[in-house]
Write a structure and sequence with these properties.
Chain A is an alpha/beta fold. Chain A has 17 helices and nine strands. A four-stranded parallel sheet of chain A has the order 7-6-8-9, with helices on both faces. In chain A, strands 2-5 form a two-stranded antiparallel ribbon. Chain A starts with a helix and ends in an 8-residue tail after the last helix. Chain B starts with a helix and ends with a strand. The chains are: A alpha/beta, B alpha+beta.
């Protein structure tokens, strides 16, 4: 997966890498579908004879306006299937669908089916020979289910069986009915995701739109012949993104088709539990150290923390509460807690919110230990995460490595602390690249804390020249090695001012 | 500053993206039916006769019933299964017994069936029985049909006029 993302990264850069915005790209494609669909619907005539001829009029007489809009409507819908499946594939390969994250995966499957129904119903509206084929085929599929007493397919026996209201009904289902459920489904899909990215970067949005416009001009969407229920079309140019199930219906029994549809759906929906993901224990709140600032609630990418009114004698109004079934154990909350400062003399160090298996106390101990082991002339400490480029290979007498579940777990005060202990010349921060954090926002939060854009911020006394951030994925391993060497060389030649040197001799007590 | 290699790379990716989108949106073509074949659809919705004899109640029997239930003739609720046969040039292509819909089988009988046949001229015979109380067939029809390639012949039943329809 990293290799594929690396290819895209080389072409688009980290900022515009489409692999990081597959969900947002899908939503964006639906915007295009919506706008182009409204345009086409204004000119569409919902009647037996008007449906096909109104679309022909758009494609032939209004080729540069409604014709392009019609093509955009089709191609953006098709492209959405590509992005949806790429999105699913990526989340699967990145193992971001199990454990607590089952919810988004599970709720995404109905959204997929709603999208399929939306596409299929759209093709009915064209009422060409392909629409005739899929209308009859889907009716025959529905007739296998014990829903309708009279076979639905009888509605398409002869042209006399059809009437204009049929198109009004299908138009209602396509334009209002399914989209309402789809929007609701997407809302549920994103329910446990805070700050979900639903818009791709402008450059990617423009590029995607331009590409689809070019396709619409070069290869405009067209209809087949007008539907004629007296004959069966010998062949149809199926849209394989949406209509791939229908050829199967010609060779398989309907029972087998439904078994496949439900089998695949159930398989996908239960996939997060096979096997069950072993997750470290979730975050724990220590109310006596929590001042109710709400920073952890704000930073949590999974809406797993809520602030509730305090019932004890504490002077603070609120206290954080962890919703265990939402928590992914990333530790970002511990990194965001103002009490998570290693300068405190408390031993063991207890903070407002912490990870039972990766506590801030343990992080301070680990930092102290690895710093003491450094012996080279130029020394640096590397803080990184377990989901990006491997760091173990850089561990030596000149470089101390601390690997966290997420770099968002690192309180910025640890950078200050490491430098002020005096046995290190620089702090190197790495981990997941921008927009591709395994835990969604951890890397951004730490970068913002370092840049004083987020609380608790790195203290301004820290010599920023001695702190270097270089985000690196698995595919960036070589670059990371180079960046570390470069930073080491830089530190060798770097002369901090006198005041800074003296300050490193003492460690402040913030307790 | 965007590099030339990035422009080329993006062009390649966007090109592949729209090529895949454009191609799979209408290709490859799917052959629904072989070019020399036609389709016969046998479909009907018909309410068959009751699955038992109606009983005329005697005045004594009616007397014993509550006033609102005094029906002079009582018929069984369940209806007969519909038995249908279709022959093409003397060859049986469809033979089915269709149960009436409903938990008590008291509703109409529905069927829908498709059969592919080579295009050509045929002698078509249809027979239907809608009562288990009678022998033989209640409705029959025969006609010569000419089916061109891709033609659809619909065999239906007009319950109002009690006759087969060929469309």
């Amino acid at each position: 997966m990293s290799t594929i993302e690396g290819w895209f990264g080389r072409a688009f850069g980290k900022e515009l890498n489409p692999m990081y915005y597959l969900g947002a790209l899908t939503v964006y494609l639906f915007y295009i579908v919506l706008v182009s669909g409204i345009y086409v619907f204004v000119l569409y005539e919902s009647s037996i004879f008007g449906a096909w001829s109104s679309l022909e009029y758009m494609s032939n007489e209004l080729r540069w306006s409604a014709g392009i809009m019609r093509s955009l409507h089709r191609y953006a819908s098709d492209a959405a299937i590509i992005t949806i499946f790429a999105h699913m594939f990526r989340e699967f390969m990145r193992d971001r669908f199990r454990g607590v994250r089952w919810y988004s995966w599970f709720t995404g499957i109905p959204v997929l089916w709603m999208t399929a129904l939306l596409g299929i119903s759209g093709y009915w509206l064209v009422w060409d020979t392909m629409a005739q084929y899929i209308a009859i085929a889907s009716s025959e599929m529905m007739d296998w289910l014990p829903i309708f007493t009279e076979p639905m397919a009888r509605n398409f026996l002869t042209s006399e069986d059809m009437n204009d209201r049929f198109f009004t009904l299908i138009a209602f289902i396509h334009v209002i009915g399914i989209p309402i459920f789809l929007v609701f489904g997407v809302w549920i899909h994103l329910f446990r995701i805070s700050r979900s990215t639903i818009n791709p970067p402008r450059g990617l949005a423009i590029g995607t739109l331009l590409a689809l416009v070019v396709l619409s001009i070069v290869y405009p969407a067209v209809s087949h012949e007008q539907a004629n229920l007296d004959t069966i079309p010998a062949s149809v140019n199926l849209d394989w993104f949406y209509l791939n199930i229908f050829p199967l219906a010609d060779s398989w029994s309907m029972g087998a088709i439904w078994a496949l549809v439900w089998g695949v759906s159930v398989f996908l929906m239960i996939l997060p539990w096979f096997p069950i993901k072993k997750q470290p224990p979730v975050a724990v709140v220590f109310p006596e150290e929590c001042n109710g600032c709400g920073q952890c609630e704000d930073d949590c990418p999974y809406s797993a923390i809520e602030m509730v009114k305090r019932e004890d004698d504490s002077p603070y109004d609120e206290v954080a509460v962890v919703q265990a079934d939402h928590c992914v154990s990333c530790g970002i909350c511990a990194g965001s807690c103002p009490s998570s400062t290693p300068f405190r003399k408390m031993d063991p160090l207890v903070t407002g919110i912490d990870m039972p298996d990766d506590s801030i106390h343990a992080l301070r101990n680990d930092t102290n230990t690895v710093l003491e082991n450094l012996s080279e002339d130029t020394r640096m400490i590397v803080y990184g995460c377990a989901h990006a480029a491997n760091l173990d290979q850089y561990n030596n007498s000149g470089t101390a490595v601390i690997t966290l579940p997420c770099t968002g777990m690192l309180p910025a005060s640890f950078i200050d602390y490491s430098l002020r202990r005096g046995n290190v010349d620089g702090v190197f921060i790495t981990g997941c690249v921008d927009n591709n954090c395994h835990f969604r926002h951890g890397n951004n939060w730490l970068d913002e804390r370092i840049d004083h854009e987020r609380k608790p911020a790195l203290r301004s006394r820290v010599d920023r020249n001695r702190v270097h951030i270089f985000r690196a994925e698995t595919s960036d391993q070589k670059k990371l090695g180079g960046a570390l060497d470069e930073f080491r060389s830089y530190l060798e030649g770097y002369k901090p001012d006198t005041v800074e040197k003296e300050e490193t001799k003492e460690v402040e007590n913030h307790d | 500053m965007i590099k030339a290699t990035q422009i080329i790379g993006q062009s390649v990716f966007y090109g592949l993206f729209i090529a895949a989108t454009g191609y799979l949106s209408a290709s490859p073509a799917y052959q629904v039916i072989e070019p020399d074949m036609a389709l016969v659809k046998i479909s009907m919705a018909h309410t068959s006769k009751p699955a038992g004899k109606c009983i005329t109640q005697t005045p004594e029997q009616l007397e014993k019933l509550p006033p609102n239930m005094r029906l002079p003739v009582v018929c069984p609720r369940e209806r007969s299964p519909l038995y249908l046969e279709v022959e093409l040039d003397g060859k049986m292509i469809y033979q089915e017994s269709i149960l009436p819909a409903g938990i008590n089988h008291d509703s109409a009988c529905y069927n829908y069936h498709k059969i592919k046949v080579p295009a050509g001229s045929y002698n078509l015979k249809t027979r239907m029985r809608d009562s288990i109380l009678t022998e033989g067939f209640d409705y029959t029809a025969e006609r010569n049909v000419e089916l061109a390639a891709s033609d659809i012949l619909v065999i239906d039943f007009d319950s109002k006029h009690q006759e087969f329809i060929f469309e």
